[in-house]
Sequence to fold (456 residues):
Amino acid sequence: AEHLVERNLIWQTNQVSFMVGARGFEPPASWSRTKHSTKLSHTPIFKCIHNISQFELFVKSFVLFSVPFADALHIISRKEVLHEAYYIIGGFMEKNYPFSDEKIPRYPLSTPRARPFLHRSGNSASSPFSPWDIYDAYDIDCRGKPGENVKIAVIEAFSAQGAEKDFEIFAKSFSLPENRLHTAFPFGKTSFSDPDWETETRADTQWAFSLAPYAEITAVFAKNDETESLLRAAEYASRELGADVVSMSFGAREFPAQRAFGKIFASKNTVFVASSGDIGSEVVFPSSNASVISVGGCALHRNAGGNTFARSAWRDGGGGPSRYEGIPKRQKRFSGISALSGKFRATPDVALDASLSPGYPVYDSSSGGFISVGGTSVAAPVFAAFCARILQKSKHFKNYVNLADYLYAAAGETTYREPQAAFYDITVGNSGKYKALVGYDFCTGLGAPNINYLER
Fold:
């Protein structure tokens, strides 16, 4: 709700009523814009609204009849209602006050603000995993020039001053091949910076590079953290930069208008990868799009010698059946998935380490040096690097329409193959209401990938 005020989308009167000043709609001259960005927690706007239909009725009744509300109205506290508010208001305004300017996005208020899924680790009992630990954990071949001639784009928001220098320091610290970080600001630069997105940029670029060190890594910046802005940056990376792999470490709760963005991911020349989120058993977009590879989380456990790994589901990993995306053919024909998700897309597809214990090292000069991070935010660029390796090396992949189809075919095409060579099946742990199972599950998807097998 504060998001609407900050962007001057809330209009008020002395009757303590409000209007959404969507682009393409001008409020009556008798209305005056709030002079400053008043926090809604101090502005009597909402009555105690407990469900979506009440909220929709509230918005419609005011817009149509200018119904005044008393000073006793209170802001709602239920998160799900706030999320639903975005698309209810946007859809209603579009229907009743059509936009005339084609350049204006079709859903100006229907896409919620996205957020990065990165977490800082407070764990100090053990050192975070190095790139070499990850090579061992997923059976990755270090030889050759992994990622060569492949372009990876990571999608970020705002800006990240000093990220290029931190990228170089990270590479030298782990004796990785020399490379450079490219940046792109397709919609112009902004002076605004956000500490979470600053760290996210460093984690995404450094870890995509560490597993595909010869790939061309580009950070593409959206001007803000609106879902639509970030998706336009992803579209730019695919169509204008010619990225082979696009990594998206962000997401928002699903909303009906998300299907309008499906064409962005329809490119046959680009693999799109997205984090499944960090709210256990919840589904987020764009991870839920059927053309995107959804990367969930697991926890890696190593023995005292540090050379043997066990895996369990990560308790905060996002996943489950989508509310709006239909089940893709690769999942529909795969035994067991339809029984779990019905006619809807199932997430995640795969799972990589996301646990904060011990986490991944990231060099962030604004934080004084190396920090430890976790979350599916890091799992996404790591898997993007794995995709780059598969695109570069695999002869088998070329027999399939896209990389997602190849992953399910490698797991067994129609039935989860046992013993499983392409994935490490994770059968221990849970992500809230979902448990890890033999074969596909909503916690870890097909499991953790065996990259040495998949890139053969």
User: Anything to note?
Assistant: The chain has twelve helices and 21 strands. Confidence is low (pLDDT under 50) at residues 1-52, 60-110. The two ends are 50 Å apart (CA to CA).
